[in-house]
Design goal:
The protein has five helices and eight strands; from the N terminus they run ααβββαββαβαββ. The protein has about 220 residues and is α/β, with parallel strands linked by helices. The chain has one domain: Rossmann fold (3-Layer(aba) Sandwich). A six-stranded mixed beta sheet has the order 4-1-5-6-7-8. Strands 2-3 form a two-stranded antiparallel ribbon. β2 and β3 form a beta hairpin. α4 crosses α5. The protein is globular, with a radius of gyration of 17 Å.
């Protein structure tokens, strides 16, 4: 069984490819380094994360797999359906937001402490299937109160330097639900909300469908 100390060979190889992309950009789409994994895909999830923060009384947050974390540097920030805010941290009302990304040098130090909330957006589908269990365990292990994540169930537009698609784990929502059920059972007391996006074929192309995966348990702030 793989873990943080002993990840799969595929995981280690992917880390090197993503480090290369952070430095040199994405060649298939012609993206400059600063436009490659900037961390901007977090913004459409901001309101969902805010609801979990308010529900749990969270004050600290870990962005696991944050990319370059550029959204946190944007001041002010326009939040969909919420107007202009001094920063995304101000919108969330948090005391601290920490970024972690193993492939981006400024944020590649693995945290040692726990956080009230852990978010992981546009990350899980980039991880090898055989490593997903320990990565999910790590997400939940860092959380005192909640975990929020999303996962795409379709190929990415981006490609790795090898030419492979950047989404290396493309599984149906039921597969993700089972992995999350297994993980959450080992971390009772941690709320979790995960959204999966699927691409549904229609007569003139396709449309995106989102599905919410969660176990909605009562939560008392400070109890976890």
């Amino acid at each position: 069984m793989y873990n943080r100390q002993n990840p799969s060979a595929r995981y280690r190889a992917l880390l090197e490819q993503y480090r290369n992309m952070h430095r040199e950009g994405e060649k298939f789409l012609g993206l400059a380094p600063e436009k490659t994994f900037p961390g901007e895909k977090l913004l459409p999830q901001a309101a969902r994360i805010k609801r979990l923060i308010e529900r749990t009384g969270a004050q600290t947050l870990l962005d696991y797999g944050s990319g370059k974390g550029q959204l946190y540097q944007r001041k002010p920030v326009e939040v969909p359906n919420a107007g202009s805010w001094p920063s995304i941290q101000a919108y969330w009302g948090l005391q601290e937001v920490r970024c972690y990304d193993p492939c981006y040098e400024p944020f590649n130090r693995l945290p040692e402490e726990k956080f009230d909330g852990v978010i992981c957006t546009d990350v899980l589908e980039h991880c090898p299937e055989e490593d997903v269990p320990w990565i999910l365990d790590e997400l939940f292990g860092y959380a005192r109160r909640f975990v929020f994540a999303n996962a795409a169930c379709y190929p990415a537009r981006k490609h790795l330097p090898t030419g492979e698609n950047a989404h290396c784990t493309i599984r149906e929502p039921a597969w993700w639900r089972e992995r999350l059920r297994e993980t959450s059972a080992r971390h009772p007391g941690v709320l979790w909300e995960v959204w999966v996006q699927s691409r549904v074929e229609i007569y003139n192309g396709h449309r995106m469908v989102e599905q919410k995966l969660t176990i909605d348990l009562p939560f008392v702030a400070g109890a976890a």
